[in-house]
Design brief:
Layout (H helix, E strand, L loop, with lengths): L13 E5 L3 H12 L3 E5 L14 E2 L4 E2 H14 L3 E4 L2 E9 L2 E8 L14 H5 L3 E3 L8 E3 L1 E2 L11 E2 L6 H5 L6 H9 L3 H9 L5 H7 L3 H4 L12 H15 L14 E5 L3 H12 L3 E5 L8 H4 L8 H12 L4 E3 L10 H6 L2 E6 L6
Parallel strand pairs: 1-2, 2-5, 12-13, 12-15, 13-14
Antiparallel strand pairs: 3-4, 6-7, 8-9, 10-11
Helix pairs in contact: 1-2, 5-6, 5-9, 6-9, 7-9
Length: 352
């Protein structure tokens, strides 16, 4: 069969098979062996269809998986078959011999070309969901492989949109993620996840106004989760265990950045710049770092040792803080630039 478009007839030597069950696979293999380019579209993360869920088949009582396994492997390796999973057909236009199909390809969140299907991500995943492949009789992790022999042989991640608590969070912290990690006893992992968006978990756990709890959907059942207190619990537990080691910054870029002000914005900018390999220096006019966290919040609400521990953690990744160094008359922005700083971030707050 000619794979190229026939100019006279207007027909194209390619076929789309919608559905990756037993009939879809057999049709795709027959067409591919005849020389057609076949696009097999399947709505789930893997082909196999309903037959992959069966134990025996009627009337021979043969093993269902034993029957479709060779077809799964052949379909996955056939050079004329392109498998498009996690996809659905949105529209079909055209006529016999020349169709135009629009497909909605949903994200898998895992790169098929890099996944070795080792299952390590499944082991550490803290989120459990009903297993639809097993008709909801058992649970599976949010990171999963539909069944052991699945083709493509790669895992996928189930995501159900952004949670209301995460949307309400000003820092957009992954609330569901760290709450699930805390529930699983993985306090250090929970703390690391919080620090991906905010480097002050212990401070936030004490002074945050927690809009996330106002939007927690658990309120529809009984009461909101104590999200803020869970953040504080994770931070305090890891600190008490002595296992709160700083992350390893990327390779140094040998570029200096000046930050004016050591409040939450300034220290956060310095922390994430340091992790990216920059050399940040924070200039603070007051004798202590922390901005309003240090001088605007009373110690009974935010103990000084907690704040100092958070600041020390930020300094441990390579952040330099110069206190008693006001920027203005004696030290201008031009003076800072002349010292070799490639960028200046002004984070003096909005006190007035």
């Amino acid at each position: 069969m000619n794979m190229k478009k026939d100019v006279k007839s207007g027909k194209i030597g390619a076929v789309m098979v919608v559905g990756g069950g037993i009939s879809g696979m057999q049709s795709a293999l027959d067409l591919a062996n005849s020389g057609f380019k076949v696009y097999m579209v399947e709505e789930t993360p893997s082909i196999g269809g309903r037959m992959a869920q069966l134990d025996k088949t009627f009337p021979t009582n043969d093993c269902a998986m034993c029957m479709i396994s060779p077809k799964l492997i052949e379909s996955g390796k056939h050079l004329n078959i392109e498998i498009i999973t996690n996809a659905e057909v949105k529209s079909v236009e055209g006529g016999e011999g020349n169709f135009k199909v629009e497909i909605l390809k949903k994200p898998r969140f895992i790169d098929i070309s890099k996944c070795s299907s080792c299952g390590e991500c499944v082991t550490v995943c803290p989120v459990s969901l009903p297993n639809e492949f097993e008709q909801g009789l058992v649970m599976r992790k949010a990171t999963y492989k539909r069944y052991p022999q699945a083709i493509p042989s790669a895992n996928a991640i189930t995501k159900r949109g952004t949670a209301p608590c995460k949307i309400a969070c000003p820092a957009h912290i992954s609330v569901q993620g760290y709450v699930a990690l805390v529930a699983d006893g993985k306090y250090k992992e929970a703390l690391d996840l919080i620090r991906e968006e905010a480097p002050f978990p212990a401070v936030l756990g004490r002074v945050c106004t927690h809009p996330c709890e106002t939007n927690c959907t658990r309120r529809n059942v009984d009461e909101a989760l104590s999200i803020c207190k869970l953040k504080r619990f994770a931070a305090d537990e890891v600190r008490a265990s002595g296992k709160d080691g700083p992350p390893v910054p990327k390779e140094s870029k040998n570029k200096k950045v000046a930050i004016v002000g050591s409040g939450p914005a300034g220290l956060s900018a310095a922390y994430y710049l340091a992790l990216q390999g920059y050399q940040p220096t924070v200039f603070e006019a007051l004798p202590v770092a922390g901005g309003m966290m240090a001088v605007g919040i009373p110690s009974y609400r935010l103990p000084k040792d907690i704040l100092n521990a958070e600041i020390d953690f930020i300094k441990s990744v390579g952040v330099e803080i110069k206190t008693n160094t006001p920027v203005g008359k004696s030290l201008s922005l031009k003076n800072i630039k002349d010292q070799g700083y490639g960028a200046i971030f002004v984070a003096v707050g909005a006190h007035r």
